[in-house]
Design brief:
Length: about 200
Amino acid sequence: MRTALLSAVGAFALVAAAPAAHADMAAAERWIADEFQPSTLSMDEQKSEMQWFIDAAKPFAGMEINVLSETIPTHEYESKVLTKAFEEITGIKVNHQLLGDVVRWPAAGAIASAPDGEYVVGVRPHFVSPIGDGPHSVPVTGQVQITELSGSESIAHFDLDGRSWVSQSHGVHPYRVGETHRFNVDTRGCLYFRPDGARVAA
């Protein structure tokens, strides 16, 4: 099943490709000595494993892979350390981008068959609500900046990872400026756009 990945920036990506680099056993030995210790494997076993990686990577040497991951300690280490090791050892460059707040949901409709890549996700305020925790909802959490009452609707402007979001929902909801609040995004109302601004057909 394909999955959409949404960041506070409002974009999601899977993987892509391009050119540059070469594999290097000397580099592998440096990484074994300087970074991949201690290990349950002996030095010779580690070298043998690295040689397998080098050989398996030969058909793909020079490729460039873009990866988008949620920000957790494991991915931070992968992004800062292992991507460099992987490129020096295999000749494959990995651009590992980390996101602050990430939510996932199954990709449906036209976006499910769209090519892998980056897309902008548009969400109208009335599809972002403090209620509606259903099968099509994904949670996001942000700090409330401004609150408004407009007739029978509550409006909240909130900060999510440095970006301003707006929730507009029926009823009176007790928001407090400065508090962290959970909202639910109804993914059925999401609009998807390519980087050039063209909308992916619904």
